[in-house]
Request: fold
Amino acid sequence: MDETKFCQELQEKTSQMGLTLTQKQLQQFYGYLNLLIEWNQKMNLTAITEPEEVMVKHFIDSLTICPYLENGKKVIDVGTGAGFPGIPYAIFDPTAEVLLADSLQKRTIFLAEVKKELGLENVHIVHGRAEDLGKDANYREQYDFAVSRAVAPLPILLEYLIPFVKVNGFCVCMKGSNGKAELEQSKNALTVLGGKVEEEKEFVLLGTDMGRTIFKIRKEKPTPKDYPRKAGVPTKQPL
Reply:
């Protein structure tokens, strides 16, 4: 897909979502698309490689979090993978300070290249597991928003995300069509970790038949010092 067609289609789709992108931002998304396709030939970043599918299932999907965040805030994307949703959000809001965290170093090398090539001065990158970073005073309770996409079931995800967020900050969790069922399983995690669901939204991803659920969860009190537990424990023994 050539740049003109890509930018036109992305602009049309984001307009339908009530979002406005500048020409520079559209060009940054096109650059991101090309880097993703190029690097995916060297390492497994995504199974989605057709430009139209990348636009919808990665870029548009990532931008669905925009109404739930506030401009100019500190945001951490936990388990960002190839940069979703953190890089699309960082492009959309250049006033935000966005930290991309991932446990695989090869992914962080790719993310560093994206940051450099797209000129994303508001993006920072850290290599590490959520359980370890969540205990580190440099990251613990330092963020206004923690976001994540396709990382873990909600009870586990909350233990990853909530420790990063300041009191009265938010976790914005992107889930599929089974989000309500995951929320039912998360009551104990919310109680233990001090979270309260403030918003939940079910919708169909633009241009697809794929169900989506977004939860915006407020952190009401400091995270107990025992959490997150050691690496691997949240997965084996969800709260």
